[in-house]
Amino acid sequence: MTDAVRRRGRVTLRQGLLLIFVLGSIGLGVELLLLGHFQEWRQQVPLVLLVSGLVLVTMNLVCRRPVVLRIFRLAMLAYVLGGIVGFWFHINGNMEFELEMNSRLTGWDLVSRTAGGALPVLAPGALVQLGLIGVLYTYRHPGLDAGQREMD
Predict the structure, then answer these.
(1) Greater confidence, 107 or 8?
(2) Positive or negative, the Cα torsion across 65, 68, 70, 76?
(3) Can you tell me the distance from the alpha carbon of 104 to that of 98, in angstroms, rounded to the nearest whole number?
(4) I want to staple 127 with a disulfide (CB 3.0 to 4.6 A). Which of 16, 83, 92, 120 is the partner?
């Protein structure tokens, strides 16, 4: 396999990752808006992250600077952190509610009711997944080298 073929394969893979990231971010953002996930500041954080990621993708496509890719990579780490914190908020909110309803709940009964509560505990994992896809997009990205450019 020639270097040109390998390079084209990497470009195609990178383009696919970027497409998945963009579609996933738009889809998750629309879903959060439809669910009214903006009533308090903590609920607005994933929306801000999603918009910032899409803005950074657009900036990268327009100006293609290494600094934009580096900021995008940091934003992807913020996605991952935001998803983990969101998981904690969902778990904590469900647990507080369940304990208010029945303060005697313990052990597996509390865990199962918390996991199946009103707030979907695994939903913030979508933000984690998008962040990891974004990190993979930047992995060994030739655009991080000031002298090299790659068409994405």
Answers:
(1) 107
(2) negative
(3) 10
(4) 83
Q: Three-state DSSP class for 38?
A: coil
Indicate the pTM of the whole model.
0.86
Measured distance CA(74)–CA(49) in Å, rounded: 11
Instruction: In whole angstroms, give the CA distance from residue 148 to residue 70.
Output: 15
DSSP letter for 37, please. Answer: T
Query: What whole-number distance in Å separates Cα of residue 2 and Cα of residue 140?
Result: 19
Q: What distance in Å separates the CA atoms of residue 85 and residue 142, rounded to the nearest whole number? A: 32
Give the residue among 133, 129, 152 at the shortest CA–CA distance from 10. 152
- Binned at pLDDT 50, 70 and 90, residue 152 comes out as very low
Q: How many Cα atoms sit within 13 Å of 120 on the Cβ side?
A: 9
Report the pLDDT value the prediction gives residue 146, as an integer from 0 to 100: 63
Distance CA 38, CA 24 (A): 19
* DSSP 8-state code for residue 150: -
Nearest to 71 by CA among 82, 80, 59: 59
The pLDDT tens digits of the residues spanning 95-149 come to: 999 999 999 989 999 999 999 988 999 999 999 999 999 999 999 898 888 654 5
